[in-house]
Amino acid sequence: MFERAGVAITPGGEAALIVGPESAIFAADVSRIDRIFTSLDYRESADPSYPEAKTSTYRDIFSTLGVKGEKIRIGIGSFLDTNVVMLESLKENYPGAEIVKADDIMLALRSIKSENELACMREGFRITELAIEEVIKNLKPGVTELQMVGIAQRVIYENGAEYEGLPMYVFSEKSTRHAISRPSYRIIEKGDLVQLNLSAKVDGYSPSIGIPVCVGKLTEEKRKLVEFGLEAHKWTEARLKAGAPASDIAKGYYNLFVSKGYKDNYVYGPCHGTGMIEVEAPWMETNSNYVLKPNMTFQVDTFVSGSTFGLRWEKGVVITEDGCESLCNPIGDIIELDF
Questions:
Q1: Distance from the CA of 327 to the CA of which of 52, 117, 207, 335 falls in 20 to 30 A?
Q2: What are phi and psi of 326, to 5 degrees?
Q3: Which residues of the chain have pLDDT under 70?
Q4: Which fold would CATH assign to domain 111-336?
Q5: Other CB atoms within 10 Å distance of the CB of residue 164
Q6: By the 8 A CB rule, do 278 and 165 touch?
Q7: What is the pLDDT of residue 180?
Q8: Pick from 238, 191, 235: which is nearest to 215 by CA?
């Protein structure tokens, strides 16, 4: 990882962008925030000291924003992603401060999308669909997983993506059991089940699509699991609407696995929020305590892990008053390539 970035915001709405020592010019070129500060707390992981650089402390930055006093309350907008260096620096600069989690504020701001945000996501899905189409055209025995990812990367950049929305993967057979994985130099063979999870970032928004593809004909075992995954995916989509308790959907999803005899194949589910990060809060889990609201966006992420293989059906939706709208073309065709 190179340099980090953060934003300090006062209760009155005064804001400053905080970056590492090497990012000041880049930040000035692209930032919507005028006040930009460099801080050693946001330097890159190689831990340079930058002895000649003039940088700012949290106290310098907060003072410029009009923050006064010692016993202040500091909210951390993404506690899980704030590292020890940043936290210790905050404590050093403000030893009398109360430091609290403020994830709920960011969640409230980011979980409901505007029409402009939805337009960015739809465009990302459109580009991702082009990449999937091209990968499937080139998928055959003898190619490597990484070769297929290379094709996907070419397509997303040719068609307007600014970056991958996630580290894209095309992986096969044993590694399809991985909920999170990376492509390898493995050569794809006839009969392999191949998992595609591709994504295109547009204006900072990172949707993704996941589908299983068989290079040849599915075995009976693979077909049963692929079909069950699709059933669970459709089951979930049919229950998404404004006002629905997230925990009820998650409990029903888990019970579907149990009732169909697939309890041991369950890993997580059934949905997670999506937007600027492909996986962002809120997750939809059995202990969730929120209801769905219009314009919340989710990835319907149906992952099923088997004994020697796994699969995922995944796409993005936006919640509406009476259901949900898919942000991409329908998925659900069981693809068996003929070789």
A1: 335
A2: -70, 135
A3: 1
A4: Creatine Amidinohydrolase (3.90.230)
A5: 21
A6: yes
A7: 87
A8: 191
Structure token pair of residue 235 = 């089951």
Among all chains, which residue has been given the structure tokens 């915001």?
Answer: 9
Domain boundaries, the chain: 5-101, 111-336
pLDDT in tens, 231-242: 999 999 999 999
Task: Report yes or no on whether pTM surpasses 0.70.
Answer: yes
What is residue 269's predicted lDDT score, i.e. its pLDDT? 85
pLDDT on residue 1: 64
The phi-psi region of residue 246 (left if phi > 0; otherwise alpha if psi is between -120 and 50; otherwise beta) is alpha
Nearest to 85 by CA among 20, 35, 31: 20
Distance CA(242)–CA(323), nearest Å, equals 7
Taking Cα atoms as reference points, which of 201, 167, 195, 208 lies closest to residue 301?
208
Calculate the alpha carbon distances from 57 to 18, 37, 60, 89, 180 in Å.
Answer: 10, 9, 5, 8, 37
